[in-house]
Amino acid sequence: MSQSFIFDMDGTLFQTDKILELSLEDAFNRLRSLNRWDTATPIDKYREIMGVPLPKVWEALLPDHSIEEREQTDAYFLERLIENIKRGKGALYANVNEVFSFLKENNCSIYIASNGLTEYLKAIVSYFNLDHWVTEAFSIQQIESLNKSDLVRIVIEKYGITNGAVVGDRLSDINAAKDNGLVAIGCNFDFAQENELAQADFVIDDLIELKSILLNLNGLYPSRDGVAKR
Q1: What is the pLDDT of residues 180-203, one digit of tens each?
Q2: Taking a C-beta distance cutoff of 8 angstroms, is the pair 62, 24 a contact?
């Protein structure tokens, strides 16, 4: 039975941590230069909420700033992220290429569904040549609800997916799998939280483990109520 794998990007395939602090510091330095920020960069706060859409990020990090200021900061932050990617500051997690090759060799289709913005995803896919394996990368920008479950539903409907899994590090990924009748694979990586991973069908510490999970998935038949059945 052919399987489809829908991957999250940040904290799952891409080590966002390597460019996050650099880019966030740049964004808050800009605010400091405008006399709109006078304390430390809230990197720890961002880590706590990592995985939510960027508009929600700026609501949390800049609660006392105007929507216009948040949007300007968001745009500048995106510029810095992309520039740091192009400068080679970021990195994929270990074994991405090996796992993707293995999945394709076993007739699996690969997609990305991310809360990252379109241009950001394009920069990562282009720099690391992920389009060699990935059929399409979907951004949260493509839907009005900013809900990961809705984004995964778009992937499923466009490509007629009936069997497969969502692979990600946060609860939004796990919920997106269950809400759409797919298997939830939680990644115990940098931004993961134990209480969220506890709700996944499988939890991995390294992407290489997807090789053995594929064998398990071929014995799983996801029901439309979101519970994987043997």
Answers
A1: 999 999 999 998 999 999 999 999
A2: no
148-159 vs 171-179: helix crossing angle, rounded to 10: 40
1 contacts 163 by C-beta, under 8 angstroms? yes
Sign of torsion, CA 151 155 161 164? negative
**Nearest CA-CA partner of 171 in 8, 39, 19, 6:** 8
Q: In angstroms, rounded to a whole number, what is the distance separating the alpha carbons of residues 191 and 170?
A: 8
Q: Rounded to two decimals, what is the model's pTM?
A: 0.88
Q: Rounded distance, CA 128 to CA 145, Å?
A: 29
CB contact at 8 A, 20 and 46: yes
**126: which 2 tokens?**
């282009």
Dist CA 45 CA 110 (whole Å): 32
Q: Are strands 109-114 and 136-139 parallel, antiparallel or unpaired?
A: parallel
The values of phi and psi at residue 24, to 5°, are -70, -40
Q: What is the dihedral of CA 127, 12, 9, 150, to 10 degrees?
A: 160
Beta strands in 81-204 (DSSP E): 109-114, 136-139, 164-168, 183-187, 202-204
Neighbours of 120 (CB within 10 A): 24
CA distance 182 to 104: 19
User: Dihedral sign, CA of 71, 136, 11, 168?
Assistant: positive
